[in-house]
Design brief:
Layout lengths: L1 H14 L10 E3 L18 E9 L2 E2 H11 L15 E2 L2 E5 L5 E8 L1 H10 L7 H15 L3 E5 L2 E5 L5 H14 L9 E9 L14 H8 L9 H6 L10 E2 L4 H6 L21 H14 L4 E6 L6 H23 L5 E9 L5 E7 L9 E5 L2 H10 L34 E3 L3 H12 L10 H9 L5 H93 L5 H7 L2 H72 L10 H4 L3 H4 L8 H24 L1 H15 L7 H14 L2 E5 L3 H4 L8 E7 L10 H6 E8 L12 H10 L13 H8 L2 E6 L6 E4 L1 E2 L2 E2 L6 H9 L5 E2 L14 E4 L13 H16 L6 E4 L3 H10 L6 E4 L1 H4 L4 E7 L7 H7 L4 H7 L2 E9 L1 H4 L5 H7 L2
Parallel strand pairs: 10-19, 11-18, 11-21, 14-16, 14-17, 15-16, 17-18, 22-23, 24-28, 25-26, 25-27, 27-28
Antiparallel strand pairs: 1-9, 2-5, 2-9, 3-4, 5-6, 7-8, 12-13, 19-20
Helix pairs in contact: 1-6, 1-24, 9-10, 10-19, 13-20, 14-16, 14-19, 20-21, 26-31
Protein name: Superfamily I DNA and/or RNA helicase
GO molecular function, one term: DNA helicase activity
InterPro entries: Coronavir_polyprotein_1ab, DNA2/NAM7-like_C, DNA2/NAM7_AAA_11, P-loop_NTPase
Length: 1016
């Protein structure tokens, strides 16, 4: 149940999320006429008024101060960004006649949280308090079921001042801590008649999801990806360090893992090694199973490019399923009827199981800009190579109003908030009379409305299917060739080692044979000499026998002197004969042994030569395969994984593109474009069913109809079939997918995940089968507005480790922690090492010294620079640290007026040089950034802010305005406690980075000292 404890802790944190007070609401006085009691109506008959009553306007700082007092938290340091703005206690939404609806009221959850802290109770009861507050609301407003024109409506009393007074009394009763007046504010909006009330602005966007998840009884009730996300440390034995172990990185380049689909960008540019390895790893791990993969992407390392290829491959994978099913069998034969309160029944059609909850792609981020970037980039015609792919088109006639520039296809929908949903529906679904653009609704209807054109598109589908399969077949043939070559690399290395060994052995044998031959010749000579000696002795012995004394028997019997003399001579000759015979035998034995040894060596020599011949056959075949890859498929030798590739330094490898060539890039892009065309034809063949489903989908999306989870999933998958990618902020996800549950989203891609608190992604990860989480924990960190001591109290109450605190970790860090493929990084000069997900390391944004400084302070010098330097004579000369001292009392704590004046002078110099491009002015302190914003508010090309404003952005020139009171070292220590702030500032600058501030004070701080050593 440990994971439930973590979820409960996160839920409790979100209870104290402070809603923003709507600045457009105005104060209404007691007894003032209530506008809904009149007969006011908008001039446009298609619109209506909606009234939002907001109770209380309280400074967030006051709420935080009360929480600090409750928890005995000391005063916040002046350099830390304090919570700003106003909050409220509750809100009530009324229709144009002043009637509340069942879900139109909500009390801010923090009010119950404060009450529970005051009572020293467990925060788990907040969910019950919120539920009871809704029941109390229904009682206070006397909700009943009414019959309007045959339609059953659950509605409360028309709101009068007496109801508002009761509301004030109720709020005072539950907010004893607030002893000031509770004023009433009113927001009047003109909204489409069919729009529904939405009180989501009042409480945490994540609270409902966390309430639901924390209430799960079993671990398996959570999605596999979320279970991984909530695992503290996987088996470290299984971790693959791709930087320390180069072979593990090289394994990710296996052609078997290459994806069929590629985003149709410039074909001469391939993914760099780590990008390609990351994409291959994502699909190797997640193609057929659920799970999660973190990708660590430092600035300028191509995170978006990587995500585009992931999207392309998912679309190709679905096209394969469509091809297998055939255009006439995408749907089940039966329909699903949706009975509506109006009495009008709606018919929808169920997709085949193989097309459900596998291919829908959701791109999410904590950052609005990141979400907008991906949803706007996908349809942009300039984001593809239109010269090479002139016919690339995917329902482009329905997507032109989605973006301001030329569009090539309806690839993405930004649907996070209600405004985005309405905008998308109008631009995509509805026709536009003024521009003549045909909406997708009308386009589908036109297929069967009058003359049925289904057969035309059925024929097109068959032709496109043949092309699609042909392209896939061609790519599979390439992969087979590349894979055969790739798989032979270990054998090649082994055979090269064998070749060297065989050559050495041959040389040894040759030397040995020469030696043996020389020694044998000597033995033959020795044998001949000994044989001659033996023959001579045998001759002498024969003569000696012939010279026996007469009467030999008697002389021997009586041992005469003549016998003794003869016998002595004979024995001497016999001994000599024996000795020389023994020597001769020894020579002959040696000769026989040498002959055997020579024969054996010659046999080995022959075998080694045969082995070398066999190796040469292998090497010849290996070279032929390499030649095929080079000549037939156009792959440069440097991008082929051969022995030379393996021997390269890791930094050299990061600059290569394994198995990439323009020809292969075009083939893979053609597959993706053919996949889209196959989708388009299949959709048009099934125009009626899809149109029926999308009519129901847009009603569901607009909040006009409630459907069960099975129907909701089918409608979403139908939409994903037509529009492959949906983007949303994490904050909007629970409202966008209220009826989508565990594993019903095929793919979740979270961008800039280092900025997001860990709890913000839990609900969306639970809904998703496969999660790819991309970001960098060393850039902008999550913003947690509540006091850290309160977070600590909530954490300890659930007995949860610090590793799960939103004050300490982000979505990215949890995803990295759960990923087996990654690397360790040492942060700056500290001994701390952090594990990151799959490491992207090829940087294509910044010149030096920005690159080298950031690489040193944040990335253990693991990044590799892939762009050439520009002239240092441009702009204000080379990047520099302008030392400016404060001669007066700082303005507003950290604003040094001398620095601001110096900045103004330098910007003036740039303008005098004719430079009017974008300039970023970044400061560690909000007060400094705000002051500069005011100073340069009339110059649109100059943007001022803290790093939070510039995450994901870039400019040729960046000024870092340091500020800080010289007498306040704590402020500088705070700004330099981690490399994140300086890292982000540095990596916004493409060409020049100019620092303005007191170098004597700042250059002694962590990380800033490294910059001080480089910048003059």
């Amino acid at each position: 149940m440990k994971q439930q404890k973590i979820l409960e802790f996160w839920r409790n944190v979100e209870i104290f999320d402070l809603p923003d007070f709507n600045k457009d609401a105005y104060l209404i006085e007691e007894g003032e006429p209530l506008p809904w009691l009149g007969n006011n109506k908008p001039s446009n008959a298609n619109y209506k008024y909606r009234y939002t009553i907001i109770f209380g306007k309280i400074q967030k700082e006051v709420i935080v101060e009360h929480l600090n007092n409750l928890l005995d938290i000391k005063e916040q340091n002046d350099w830390e960004q304090s919570v700003t703005g106003f909050s409220c206690l509750s809100a009530l939404i009324l229709d144009e006649k002043g009637y509340p609806q069942e879900d139109s009221y909500v009390v801010a959850s923090y009010t119950f949280g404060i009450r529970i802290l005051e009572q020293n109770k467990n925060l788990s009861i907040v969910a019950g308090d919120l539920s009871k507050s809704k029941d109390d609301f229904l009682d206070r407003y006397n909700f009943q079921v009414f019959d309007f024109d045959g339609k059953q409506v659950f509605q409360g009393d028309r709101v009068l001042w007496e109801h508002l007074d009761k509301e004030i009394s109720y709020l005072k009763d539950i907010n004893k801590w607030w002893d000031q007046d509770i004023n009433i504010y009113l927001l009047i909006e003109t909204v489409p008649k069919d729009s529904e009330p939405n009180t989501s602005f009042l409480n945490s966007f994540y609270l409902n999801d966390l309430n639901y998840l924390s209430a799960t009884e079993k671990k398996n009730d959570l999605g596999i990806a979320l279970q991984s996300y909530l695992t503290l440390v996987p088996s470290t034995i299984e971790r693959k360090d791709l930087i320390q172990n180069k072979e593990l990185l090289l394994q990710s380049f296996d052609p078997r893992s290459m994806t069929s689909g590629r985003w149709p960008s410039k074909i001469e540019y391939g993914l760099y090694s780590a990008q390609a390895g990351a994409v291959n790893t994502i699909f190797s791990n997640l193609r057929v199973k659920e799970g999660l993969q973190g990708v660590n992407g430092p600035p300028g390392t191509g995170k978006t490019t990587l995500l585009l290829d992931v999207i392309a491959e998912v679309i190709v994978e679905r096209a394969k399923v469509i091809s297998d099913l055939g255009c006439d069998k995408l749907f089940e034969s039966k329909y699903i009827k949706i009975e509506k309160e109006s009495g009008y029944d709606q018919y929808t059609y169920s997709l085949k199981p193989s097309l459900k909850n596998n291919f829908g792609i959701v791109v999410a981020s904590n950052n609005n800009a990141a979400v907008e970037n991906i949803s706007k980039e996908l349809p942009l015609k300039k984001k593809i190579d239109s010269e090479i792919f002139p016919d690339a088109d995917y329902f482009s006639s329905c997507s032109q109003l989605l973006i301001e520039e030329d569009s090539w296809g309806t690839l993405a929908a930004a649907l996070g908030n209600m405004k985005n949903r309405s905008t998308f529906k109008k631009a995509f679904w509805q026709s536009e009379e003024k521009t003549g653009q045909i909406g997708f609704n009308e386009l589908l209807h036109s297929i069967y409305k009058e003359e049925d054109k289904t057969e035309v598109y059925r024929k097109d589908f068959r032709e496109q299917d043949r092309l699609f399969k042909s392209l896939l077949h061609e790519f599979e043939n390439f992969k087979k060739q590349a894979e055969i070559f790739h798989q032979q690399l270990p054998k090649y290395i082994e055979n090269k080692q064998k070749e060297a060994q065989f050559i050495n052995e041959l040389a040894e044998i040759k030397s040995k044979l020469i030696k043996l031959s020389d020694e044998r010749a000597y033995l033959i000579k020795e044998e001949n000499t000994r044989k001659n000696d033996s023959d001579k002795i045998q001759t002498l012995l024969s003569l000696q026998l012939q010279r026996k004394p007469t009467f030999f028997f008697f002389q021997k019997l009586f041992s005469t002197s003549a016998y003794k003399r003869w016998n002595s001579e004979a024995e001497e000759l016999i001994n000599k004969s024996r000795k020389i015979t023994s020597l001769l035998d020894d020579s002959r034995t040696k000769l026989a042994n040498y002959k055997n040894e020579i024969n054996e060596s010659e046999s080995k020599q022959k075998k080694l030569k045969n082995n070398l011949s066999e190796l040469n056959v292998f090497f010849s075949g290996y070279q032929k395969l390499q030649n095929i890859l080079c000549e037939k498929y156009g792959i440069e030798t440097k991008n082929i994984l051969d022995i030379a590739f393996l021997q390269k330094d890791l930094k050299e490898i990061h600059l290569l593109s394994p198995y990439h060539s323009p020809k292969i890039a075009k083939l893979r892009s053609d597959i993706f474009i053919a996949a889209l065309q196959l989708h388009q034809d299949a959709i048009l063949v099934n125009a009626k069913r899809i149109r029926n489903n999308l009519l129901a989908f847009f009603e569901m999306l607009s909040g006009w109809s409630n459907v069960n989870r099975e129907v909701a999933q089918n409608l979403w998958d139908t939409f994903f079939l037509c529009v492959p990618v949906v983007s949303t902020t994490l904050a909007s996800a629970s409202r966008l997918f209220p009826s989508i549950d565990k594993n019903q989203i095929g793919w979740l891609l979270i961008d800039e995940a280092g900025q997001a608190t860990p709890q913000s992604a839990a609900g969306l990860i639970h809904r998703s089968k496969r999660c790819v989480i991309v970001g960098d924990p060393l850039q902008v960190e999550p913003v947690v507005s509540m006091p850290e001591r309160l977070v600590t109290k909530l954490r300890k109450e659930q007995n949860v480790e610090l590793d799960w605190s939103p004050c300490k970790v982000s979505v990215q860090q949890l995803a990295d922690r759960a990923s087996l493929s990654g690397t360790y990084m040492q942060v700056g000069d500290s001994e701390e090492k952090i594990w990151t997900g799959f490491p992207l390391r090829t940087h294509r944004r910044c010149d030096n010294p920005m690159f080298s400084i950031a690489n040193e302070i944040a990335y253990s010098n693991q990044m590799v620079k892939a762009i050439n330097e520009n002239s240092t004579d441009e702009f204000l000369g080379a990047s520099k640290w302008f030392h400016v001292e404060c001669d007066s009392t700082p303005y507003n704590k950290h604003v040094i007026l001398e620095e601001v004046k110096f900045l103004q002078m330098k910007i003036y110099e740039l303008q005098q040089m004719g430079y009017f491009g974008n300039i970023y002015v970044i400061s560690p302190f909000k007060s400094v950034a705000d002051y500069c914003s005011n100073e340069f508010k009339k110059q649109n090309n100059i943007s001022c802010g803290t790093i939070h404003k510039f995450q994901g952005k870039e400019a040729d020139i960046v000024f870092l305005l340091l500020g800080s009171n010289p007498a306040s070292p704590g402020a500088r220590n705070w700004a330099s406690q981690k490399p994140n702030m300086l890292n982000v500032a540095l990596t916004r600058a493409k060409k020049r980075f100019y620092v303005i501030g007191n170098k004597k004070l700042w250059a002694s701080c962590n990380y800033f000292n490294a910059m001080g050593n480089v910048l003059e």
